[in-house]
């Protein structure tokens, strides 16, 4: 069982605007704190420096389940000096993702005729103006399936306010220094390369996602439960494509992505060595998968433990 990677989600969210599902992203109502929820929250220590690490699934949960976050996480955050987070998309970022999401190859060179007909029928079902249909037809085939998958997930209520946005608001309230990480150039490069080199494999992967849904297997609910429980392995199994043995050949490319992000993060930390406590909110796979940022911190002499 696997789940969407953040770089897939970000690309497909660009098209959500076109098909008007933004209403599915609702703010949570106030509810009691969930201090018994472990979640994916870790502390890295070295000498006198503390780095808190919060693994995000980017709002892929029901609002009443995810919020409010446990007190121990919020308390650690408000005591931090610096907040590092994946920056919201700028106009320039959106242009990068739109460019990366468009296919440079003919669909017939990537997928079979019956698969093309299936995608066309999905687009027709949206009843969009012709120019918007043509816009969707320019995208990578696997990405179109991803968009429809995300539509189903959103309509089922599993699209809440991203955790990052909660922390941004809190940082503003507590005057915490915010340092946004501009990952869009890295991620858009990755989407473009992977779509060109592995477009057919990614399409097959998305078909498996939809087959789970047809079999009434709620992957969004499984991800939500694992995230709340702090079940690192299950979250990664649901997030990272290559953890499915059928798609293991993608692991090398995912590792290269992690290396680029790790270098960016480590540089940001080294530039803020004056900060005794840093709080990082980032995609759980970028933090916790093999070769992710936690692995790099351990190699740099940090001690990591759940908190």
From TrEMBL:
<dbReference type="Pfam" id="PF01963">
    <property type="entry name" value="TraB_PrgY_gumN"/>
</dbReference>
<keyword id="KW-1133">Transmembrane helix</keyword>
<dbReference type="InterPro" id="IPR047111">
    <property type="entry name" value="YbaP-like"/>
</dbReference>
<dbReference type="InterPro" id="IPR002816">
    <property type="entry name" value="TraB/PrgY/GumN_fam"/>
</dbReference>
<keyword id="KW-0472">Membrane</keyword>
<protein>
    <submittedName>
        <fullName>TraB/GumN family protein</fullName>
    </submittedName>
</protein>
<keyword id="KW-0812">Transmembrane</keyword>
<feature type="transmembrane region" description="Helical">
    <location>
        <begin position="7"/>
        <end position="27"/>
    </location>
</feature>
């Amino acid at each position: 069982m696997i789940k969407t990677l953040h770089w897939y989600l970000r690309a497909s969210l660009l098209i959500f605007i076109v098909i008007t599902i933004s209403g599915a992203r609702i703010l949570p109502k106030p509810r009691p704190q969930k201090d018994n929820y472990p979640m994916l929250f870790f502390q890295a220590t070295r000498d006198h420096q503390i780095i808190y690490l919060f693994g995000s699934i980017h709002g892929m949960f029901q609002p009443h389940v995810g919020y409010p976050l446990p007190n121990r996480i919020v308390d650690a955050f408000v005591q931090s000096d610096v907040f590092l987070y994946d920056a919201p998309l700028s106009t320039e970022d959106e242009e990068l993702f739109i460019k990366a999401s468009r296919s440079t190859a003919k669909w017939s060179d990537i997928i079979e005729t019956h698969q093309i007909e299936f995608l066309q029928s999905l687009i027709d079902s949206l009843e969009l103006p012709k120019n918007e249909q043509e816009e969707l037809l320019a995208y990578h085939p696997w990405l179109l399936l991803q968009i429809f998958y995300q539509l189903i997930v959103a309509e089922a209520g599993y699209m809440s306010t991203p955790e990052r946005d909660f922390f941004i608001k809190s940082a503003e309230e507590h005057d915490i220094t915010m340092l946004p990480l501009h990952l869009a150039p890295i991620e858009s490069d990755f989407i473009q390369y992977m779509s060109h080199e592995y477009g057919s494999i990614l399409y097959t992967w998305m078909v498996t996602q939809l087959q789970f849904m047809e079999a009434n297997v709620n992957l969004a609910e499984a991800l939500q439960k694992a995230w709340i429980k702090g079940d690192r392995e299950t979250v990664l199994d649901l997030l990272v494509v290559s953890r499915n043995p059928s798609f293991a050949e993608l692991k090398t490319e995912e590792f290269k992505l992690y290396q680029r992000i790790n270098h960016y993060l480590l540089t940001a930390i080294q530039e803020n060595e004056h900060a005794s406590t840093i709080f990082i909110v980032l995609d759980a796979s970028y933090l916790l998968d093999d070769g992710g940022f936690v692995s790099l911190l351990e190699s740099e002499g940090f001690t990591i433990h759940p908190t």
